[in-house]
Amino acid sequence: MRLDKLDSDFLRYLIEKHIQSGDQLPTLSEMSAELGVSVGKLREELSVARALGFVTVRPRVGIQRAPFDFLPAVLTAVLYSLGTGEAAFAQFSQLRRAIESHLWPDAVARLTEEDKQELKQIVANAWLKLRGSPIHLPNGEHRQFHLKIYSRLENPFVKGLLEAYWEAYEASELTRFVGYEYWVEVWTYHENIVDALCKNEFERGRQLLLEHFSLLPERPANESDGQNSNM
Question: Of 33, 67, 173, 230, whose CB count within 10 A is highest?
Fold first, then answer.
């Protein structure tokens, strides 16, 4: 790989020295002497690496390499773009739908029987919340359900993008004012998707997934003009 495309002496150091997750790094002064780069410049680059989740910095421990996680980098960009209005949640949602639809066959083929039972339990937990008194919205279960289906892909970019979608979904508050019927319909679809997975009817499950994408409103219900976008 051409490291000259990576504009950070600090990050190039991590790669060239084969620093592994959990390894402790030298101090900035030691790296500065070794690289011939000022401590001030390295400190700035460390700050960026820390924000991206590549390293951690703790008292009495120092700088440690963290496992790679795509989420911090992509989430910052997504939330910033949505906040400035230079991108729309519907656009990111379109990307998420394409990922889930395209990778569905590979993802569901990798699911174990334990995974399928966990999906059934997630659905059961959601119904308990919806049918309880008082009613609670199963927002956490919604996220768990979708991420679980794609959890066996072992693709850090897919994982980061899908996790970022659910963070942006919560931030967008698209379902803040939707009625109870919306949640019943969503979880009926989820229940049927799990039923299809447990019967190894993967194409039926995919069709249900695609159908249920259409349930999510494009904007919060109190602002909606009646148009729907895909979920």
Answer: 230
* pLDDT greater at residue 4 or residue 67: 67
CATH code for residues 3-65 = 1.10.10.10
Residue range 71-215, CATH number: 1.20.120.530
CA distance 217 to 231: 7
Instruction: Say which residue the tokens 């569901």 belong to.
Output: 108
Q: Say what the pLDDT of residue 230 is.
A: 39
Helix H or strand E segment including 161: helix 156-172
Prediction pTM value: 0.88
pLDDT tens-digit readout, 46-81: 999 999 999 999 998 899 999 999 999 999 999 999
Residue 101 backbone zone (phi > 0: left; psi -120 to 50: alpha; other: beta): alpha
Q: Where are the domains of the chain?
A: 3-65, 71-215
